[in-house]
């Protein structure tokens, strides 16, 4: 059965009534009887007549595509990328390696953030704008900030270099040469500077009668390392090693003792030198100096160096409210080493008795003299030292049962610049005299020429060209700190703080004191010092003999 659409006949009149809808005519096929007829092809003209204008045969219409059904496969298909290109940052793996473009972007972001942070410092405070000083954004702003940074660094480097050059080029070297050399100044006697030795000095005075237990005061080096390394000389023949430095620009053309005090800076004395009043008092009453009794300032500084190889340790002093001063200790808590003489540094040297036969350079300072004793006599009120091991320098630290200290002991050094006027001659290696006449010119150095360095010449009398007197006595000092006291030592080598005792000292024995410190009624601050005059315990060593 075939259905067709039939339009209104074209030859129908216009005013004839039109049908509202096309008439669908059903043509019933003729009855087929017998064998069906084979279908015949339809002509194109019939198809056009049957289909009407704009119609197409159904055979030309494509059937719709079947629905897509995904079938299971062993491996999934790769992801489908968008057909359009994406920026580089959109296709980067966040967990993978960052490319150069991304690195540059991040660096510029950090630079911009730092610039904004700096531009916002102190925003709205004082004279700073509330809007900050951020500058221009983007590439132009970065270029400007970089230029500002480079210019600022350039000027900063110039300032640093100027300061460094000004401090290094204008500063005079304060190092003293190891090998000594003569310095001859117009207003001062010639003297050698550098490191020199005073080897194998001979004891001139050994007086220990100021205490009942005489072994408490000794003119011997402490037993042990100090006496061993002083060989071949005896324990009471110590070797001194000194360093004299000349500070250029400090010499004074006047001989007045009231000259302006020089700022020493790195030349600061340790310990501090005594006051001028104290030096005047002792110079007049004890040392026999001519006016000015305190001497004259010089551009020379003297340090006493160790002549033996001592172990470097830190020394501590316990705090103690008792009248007995606290003892000194090493870092391990054991008593500090015994001391016969100190090692002061950068002490200002003064000139005494200018132009006279007793003309000499010199200085003095105060220190705590100490000694180890194997006897406990100073602690148990005994008046006799019954231990013979304490003679000649006390005992060793390992065998000691007591340590006695003489606080505010004076250490005096005198360098005689006119030996012929004093009749002094240097000792020779055999103990006899040798000519000690010093030349008056700095170019004459043959008198001290040795085969070895002047700093390590330990052959008597050493490399020092002048006669020298070294004295340790009990004159002067601070009355409030000046004492003699002993502390016990237990079997473990530590202090026994239940055994401490002050000792009685007779500072006038063998002489006459001026303004003694022990008598408050006689002591007066008008003198400028205490315990002047003569007498008391004393040690004195010299590197010369008298030929007069």
Description:
The protein is α+β, with helices and mostly antiparallel strands and 548 residues long. It has a domain at 184-252 and 265-546. The chain has 6 helices and 21 strands. Strand 3 (181-183) and strand 4 form a beta hairpin. It is elongated. Residues 1-111, 249-274, 435-458 are annotated as: Disordered.
Q: What's the gist of this structure?
A:
The protein is an alpha+beta fold. It has helices at residues 44-51, 100-119, 138-169, 225-228, 276-285, 419-422, and strands at residues 2-6, 23-27, 181-183, 191-198, 202-207, 240-246, 296-305, 316-317, 328-329, 347-352, 360-373, 402-416, 424-427, 433-434, 468-473, 484-489, 495-502, 513-514, 532-533, 538-542, 544-546.
Order of helices and strands: EEHHHEEEHEHEEEEEEHEEEEEEEEE
Beta-strand portion reads 15-25%
Specify the helix fraction band: 10-25%
Return the average pLDDT rounded to an integer.
80
- H/I helix tally: 6
List the uncertain runs.
1-24, 253-264, 432-451
User: What oligomerization state is this entry in?
Assistant: single chain
What sort of overall outline do the alpha carbons produce when their principal axes are compared? elongated
SS content category? alpha+beta
Query: How far apart are the termini?
Result: 171 Å
